[in-house]
Amino acid sequence: MSAANFEFFDALGQIARDKGISVETLLDALANALVAAYKRLPNAAEEAVVTIDPDSGEIRVYGQELDEDGNVVREWDDTPDNFGRIAAQTAKQVILQRIRDAERDLKYEEYAGREGDIVTGIIQQSDNRYTLLDLGRVEALMPQAEQVPYERYEHGSRVKAYIVEVRKTTKGPQIVVSRSHPGLIKRLFELEVPEMTSGVVEIKAAAREPGHRTKIAVWSNDPNVDPVGACVGARGARVRMVTNELRGEKVDIVPYSDDPVEFVARALQPAKVREVRLDDETGTATVIVGDYQLSLAIGKEGQNARLAARLTGWRIDIKSESRLAEEEAGYSGEEWAEGEWIENEAGEMVWKPAGGGEAVSAEEWSRQVADDDGPAAAVADGAPEAAPDSGDAPGSADAPGSADAPGSGDAPGSAALPGAATEAVDAAPSGEAAP
């Protein structure tokens, strides 16, 4: 091997070590580059092959003649005299390009198949379309659809994200990450709970409304290990770490059960459920709760019920005990008048029919009931059944946010059909509450 060849191969080996690319890959790229350089010379053969001896460093060019089937019928040594200098000049850019291609392939192989993993990145750029995260050797893309609403991503801050997809492009791997995916919750708990890493505790189901609230159902494969306690940690340290990473998002941890009745009841925590009735044909779970627990079971804007429906896969219909008693007493089939009690100019409470017409005072209504011999006739005539002393409408005591519901106001309510105090929630992917 000549001194020049020795220096060349020594440099090639150094590049291979620095870039993490095999010497064979670089030699193959060099051979292809030399073929391209050879064919640009005058009187070059139409077909040629370049061989490089890795031991001696000798480079030879062989011209080839092929038949119609592509088989070599004749081959001869056609190495130009000054081919070493020509090769060095023409192969440089090709080799650099091949190195860049090999680096992109290595980066892609590093992240290919890692969908579902969690990564930590530094925010480089953020706008209303997407956010870029620097993962070290590559950048990850977080589209707006995968971001948490109202979560701010400040430049230079460090965040954890969930890998949704890894794409192979001509510019290298494109990694799509998410902060709103339910899988992020599972991975964060795996980082904080050693029992999950060992397989003793596992998350059976998860439902999430990003930025607001998450419910997870956990199960223990060891009867001596409490799955909820393992996830909460001493003084709530473990779940607090997850909440901090989610920037304050609330996390409810409930024990999983194979019994659907028990699982539905647990999924509605922190509300206390009195009874659960399942209808396998419709996939509906009718949940009975105390009157004072109705608002807690439904949650703010139906959030608790929606998450419980997603978690269990059942359509959840929540009813209060008083409403259930009314339905079982035979009032469920009655046609109730629609309207509301309002205060007139004189400061008196009067009934205003929803369909229009003259308002009726409580005194006039009572007189009409007496003339018609009872409230049943009043219901049939389209009048309200009773004039509530507090100014509330019939049936509004059981409704979410009513006068008897926790945290509600004392404003006069409006009459509703029986069952208005129930909240039906479908376990649909959209997670919206059913009317």
Structure in words:
A 5-stranded mixed β-barrel has the order 4-5-6-8-7. A 5-stranded mixed sheet has the order 12-13-14-18-19. The N and C termini lie far apart (84 Å). The longest helix is centred in the N-terminal third of the chain and has 29 residues, at 83-111. Residues 374-423 and 428-435 have low confidence and may be disordered. By secondary structure, the chain is an alpha+beta fold. It has 13 helices and 19 strands. It has helices spanning 3-19, 23-39, 83-111, 182-192, 194-197, 227-232, 237-245, 260-267, 294-298, 303-312, 321-328, 362-371, 375-380, and strands at residues 47-52, 59-66, 72-77, 118-126, 130-134, 139-143, 158-169, 172-178, 201-209, 213-220, 250-255, 273-279, 284-289, 315-320, 339-343, 349-353, 360-361, 423-425, 433-434. Among the domains are: 3-111, NusA, N-terminal domain (N Utilization Substance Protein A, Chain:P, domain 4), CATH 3.30.1480.10; 118-180, OB fold (Dihydrolipoamide Acetyltransferase, E2P) (Beta Barrel); 336-434, no CATH class.
